[in-house]
Design goal:
The chain is an alpha/beta fold. It has 11 helices and 9 strands. The chain is elongated.
């Protein structure tokens, strides 16, 4: 094995991941190979006959074995892309997902269409929403709130590395009293925990490594939508917007919650896969 070429190592890696049931084995093999060897797909095409360093090969397959056992690729890499930014991730923080781009794009549309100036991102986690929104809306001041002691350092790190105009706050979004926030916000965005409690444990090996606190939305998955709407409508100015990421089957329930609290202009948007993903509404007044 010590005389394997890069190509031979890469092919062996793909086989291992495929046998483990990894759907995108080529993409994940490429990401792991580049992480260890510093060589991308183009390098493999041009220099695939290069002899692989045995120590690096051993490290690569240590990572591959962990991935085959269900450990998230993003945690192995320590980073993941979301929109135009790369975010540090690891145990204790939810991995950014493409579906969440729908939230950012709708929040951006509202901020620009209505000249919004202040926003809060609740349950911020890695900060992917807050940072992306701030970068896409330079005139918007953003506060990012996160309770988890494990996730908060990632939030601070990602804000710092991005240079985005975001203020991190360690806070319970359901009990935000005493926070230094504007008297009235123009926009509140949230990707709260929304998986039903009984379902969280059935989501598969990879998701099982992500923090339950970021997934568990209570018995019906709507616990945080009720709490956030009730609490944060008081922080929104009249005419301000509340934008939620939702589970694919939660649009009706979240719309009912917003309507019951006096929100109007309710809208539901779909993600890239055609699933309901965002519900938003405007505070009357």
């Amino acid at each position: 094995m010590s005389r394997e070429t890069w190509n031979q190592v890469y092919l062996r890696l793909k086989v291992l991941l495929r046998r483990a049931g990894i759907e995108n084995e080529a993409g994940e093999a490429g990401a792991l190979f580049e992480e260890v060897f510093g060589a991308g797909r183009r390098d493999l095409l041009l220099h695939g006959d290069r002899i692989a360093d045995p120590a690096s090969t051993a490290r690569l397959f240590e990572l591959a074995d962990r991935r085959a056992a269900g450990y998230p690729l993003q945690y192995l890499l320590g980073k993941w892309w979301f929109m135009e930014e790369q975010f540090a991730v690891g145990e204790g923080v939810l991995v950014p997902r493409p579906d969440t781009e729908t939230v950012v794009l709708e929040a951006e549309r509202l901020a620009k269409a209505y000249g919004l100036e202040t926003a809060a991102d609740l349950c911020s986690g890695s900060g992917c929403i807050a940072v992306s929104l701030a970068k896409r809306c330079p005139g918007l001041r953003v506060w990012a709130l996160e309770l988890s002691a494990d996730a908060f350092p990632y939030l601070e790190r990602n804000i710092l590395s991005s240079g985005a105009a975001v203020t991190p706050l360690r806070a319970d979004v359901l009990q935000p009293d005493g926070l230094r926030l504007p008297d009235a916000l123009d926009l509140v965005v949230a990707n709260p925990p929304y998986i039903r409690s009984e379902v969280v444990g059935t989501l598969g090996k990879t998701v099982s490594h992500e923090p339950r606190i970021a997934l568990d939305g209570g018995p019906d998955g709507l616990l945080f939508y009720r709490g956030i709407t009730s609490v944060w409508k008081e922080y929104l100015r009249p005419g301000g917007w509340l934008v939620f990421e939702i589970g694919f089957d939660q649009a009706a329930g979240v719309r009912e919650i917003l309507a019951a609290h006096g929100f109007a202009a309710l809208r539901c948007l779909r993600d890239y896969g055609g699933n309901d993903r965002v519900v938003c509404g405007r505070k009357r007044g």
